[in-house]
Amino acid sequence: MDVTHRQATAAPRFFPPPQAADAHGLLGMGGELSPEWLLDAYSHGIFPWPIDEHHLAWWSPDPRAIIELDRLHVSRRLARTCRSGKFHLTSDRDFAGVIEGCATACGRKHHTWITREMKAAYIRMHELGYAHSIEAWHKGVLVGGTYGVALGGLFAAESMFYRMSDASKVALVKLVEHLRHRGYQLLDIQMLTPHTQRMGAVEIPRSVYLRRVAAAVRLPVTFGSLEQT
Q1: 182-187 average pLDDT score
Q2: pTM (two decimals)
């Protein structure tokens, strides 16, 4: 189920062109969360974001938020926390735990877009080698992390969570460091938030994003593991 050069450059198989999205970025409703649909979506700058348990929506907003891998802003305090060894960082050790944390931590339970179907779909993507997680542990307990989809040199970050202060930020710092080391070219975060903006996230026009996606997914890059960083 590899994303081939043809898939990366051809029009989407299951979707209208991303440029057909409305002013809010909504491209379409319905469809399915199969690996085939998800790979087609991410390789063309599209992502799923359910409105609720029963309504699946697909989005391609303009502008698009990214973190340039060489421009992450790490405060002095956060840098000290990263160096302190307070958190033990791993990759792909507990993907299901991370996605569950993203759905339930910090008051998100019953107020999240990560539905049961979304969790099952991304766990399947993980089993196929397309979705990856970074975990932050404290005294053997999972206290934070982030996960996303990796296609070639694109990493599409989906969500992050924390149960201890700074755990998600430390996981993000480690993710960016790992992606740089592995040769990734694009870290997508979909939409800008005050939190990610403080860490250096920026918005770029969708037209620019789509060109960068098309180039990134063709790169012979693999996620590997933190032990290789």
Answers
A1: 98
A2: 0.93
